[in-house]
Amino acid sequence: MSIQDNLLKIKSQLPENVTLVAVSKTKPVEDLMEAYHACQRIFGENKIQEMTEKWQQMPKDIEWHMIGHVQSNKVKYMVPYVKLIHGVDSLKLLKEINRQAVRWRKSINCLLQIHIAEEETKFGLDENELEEVLHFVKNDKNGMTNIKIVGLMGMATFTDNHEQIKREFNHLKSIFDQYKKLETSNLKLETLSMGMSGDYQLAIECGSTMVRIGSSIFGGR
Questions:
Q1: pTM over the 0.85 mark
Q2: What does the alpha-carbon distance between residue 70 and residue 74 come to, in Å, rounded to a whole number?
Q3: DSSP 3-state of 221
Q4: Would 153 disulfide with which of 111, 138, 162, 183, CB 3.0-4.6 Å?
Q5: Is 33 a residue whose pLDDT tops 70?
Q6: Who's near 179: CB < 8 A, 6+ residues apart?
């Protein structure tokens, strides 16, 4: 099946309240343009240099999402155009995003990444760290004026154990529900990003409102 066919099939299965991020990392611009011509406008990349090169070449009505682990010293390269940063996993990183956004006189939307998997290699905040970050952001004295926390994201353990994945997704949904009543000028949790090609349908059942799908659209890497 073509990229266009894959996209149309996936979109037909998604509820209206679920946003599709087409994960286009390592894929050539030609493949992204095929998805673009099939009306896909949100693309996710995990390397800032690659994303910047594609942004420069492609139509400017595209929303670029940074979905990979972000190094603080690379933030400045994507601030001019990035729409959403998915993997904010430390207060240090959040401060740097805010600092660069101030320089560019922009506001940057961010998702806080929560560690829900049993694998030690996955990045993310634990619940105590999440509490600290939210407390810091809410305090006007800390000057976090140019970021907006719009939701949470998390990745389940890479396993065939359906019940474990479901348990991890439900855990993240419960954390999301716990904090979504918080609302300040720079904090309003509306997006719950969880689910990829292998588990997005289960993630949606568990409450996901944003899925990141790559290989099911573009094929394997």
A1: yes
A2: 7
A3: coil
A4: 111
A5: yes
A6: 130, 134, 152, 189
